[in-house]
Amino acid sequence: MTIHEYEIKVMSYVLKFVDREGEIKALRKLIETGSPLAEFTYGPEGCGKSTLLRYIAATLRDNYIIMYVDALEQQPGRVLEGVKLPEEEITEIAASIGGPIGAAVAGAITKLLEKLCTEVKFRDKYLAILVDDPIRAIGINGCEAYVKWLYELIYKISREFEPKTVLILATSSEGISRRIPLRHSYVHITLIWNLPYEGLVELVNQLPEPRPEPEKVWKLTGGNPRAVIDLALRHRWNVDHWIKELKYKLTEIIMEIKYRGLGKQLREVIENPDTLWYNVSEELRTLLKILEEQNLIIYKHHTTLTQREVPEDQEIGVGKYYAWQIPAYRQALEQLLRELT
After folding, report:
1. Per the omega criterion (within 30 degrees of 0), is the bond before 273 cis?
2. Pairing outcome for strands 165-172 and 126-132
3. What is the pLDDT of residues 102-153, one digit of tens each?
4. What is Dmax (Cα atoms) for the chain?
5. Nearest to residue 31, comparing CAs of 80, 64, 70, 54?
6. Which of 254, 251, 195 is closest to 46 using CA atoms?
7. Which one of 14, 19, 39, 274 has the lowest number of neighbouring Cβ atoms within 10 Å?
């Protein structure tokens, strides 16, 4: 199945997967090479991490064993992709651990493999375990222990199941969670970013008319697929309505920022997110913590899966070190600052 044959159902629309050939090629190569470290990939909310992993799980066959685990899923029949296990077995395993289905399964990978090995031969196969959003499922306090456990799992799986290679990769949209595994040598961190402009154009052209100019959508979304789809399907390309809704979501956050006396600092970060890097102060560190916890700002000075750096583009709020997850957050916050002054 080629990338353009892979379909994503959104409401009554069927969209084609676009502009991820480089990431697919890089991830396939990583699976074939394996990694002695736990791979931790993060990026903006809605940038397409889950779709990329689901595509890999749906398309790699023959010499590959791909286990995709959706750590946020609540239905036993949907928590696993790639490999298949009966729902009752998944439910039984999850019940033995406790908690939500997805989070429990993310913590029961060894048990899943033990069940699977009665039906599938692991020897001389490329094995990849792709765990989607485990940090949000288990909580930030469990991040360090979980990532260490994933690392140790590589060697346990290698001994017990003898696959040709092992790759364990976890994703996160929680920018603040990046710092915890970064402290340790057993983790390798990479970045997945929003679509480039050309990919955004491909996506926009699949969505209903009357469509705005792609350049306008780019300046609002920065190529974030979820934001583009939300703007198109729920708001019918009504930008004012979309920004108004974002402002409702951000009002409590802006009040917290103003309460802490950080309005001036926020204006500086709206103008240039790298202010957070170059102008170090206690106030800016406090502001960074708020913006990261709310998934508005993200640190981006890592290489991507394709071993490149995300280019700086101040017009859409992307600096060298920090970036707004979508440019529209800047616009909404700027309007709120003016209205509340």
Report:
1. no
2. parallel
3. 777 777 888 888 888 777 888 899 999 999 988 887 777 778 888 888 999 9
4. 66
5. 64
6. 195
7. 14
DSSP string across 190-233: EE--PPPHHHHHHHHTTSPSSPPPHHHHHHHHTT-HHHHHIIII
Low-confidence spans in the chain with pLDDT less than 70: 1, 97-98, 174-182
Residue-range domains of the chain with CATH: 3-191 (3.40.50), 238-340 (no CATH)
CA distance 166 to 3: 24
CA 257, CA 112: separation in Å to the nearest integer? 45
Q: Note whether 316 and 222 are within 8 A (CB).
A: yes
Query: Hey, what are 83's tokens?
Result: 């490999």
- Determine contact, residues 297/184, Cβ cutoff 8 Å: no
Whether residue 176 contacts residue 293, with contact meaning beta carbons closer than 8 Å, is answered with: yes
The predicted model scores a pTM of 0.92
Length of the chain: 341
Two structure tokens written together for 264: 């001036």
Q: Each residue of 186-208: b (16+ CB within 10 Å) or e?
A: ebbbbbbbbbeeebbbbbbebbe
Q: Could you tell me which residues are beta bridge partners of residue 319?
A: none
Residue bearing tokens 């959706």: 70
Q: What are 173's two structure tokens?
A: 């949209």
107 phi, psi to nearest 5 deg:
-100, 5
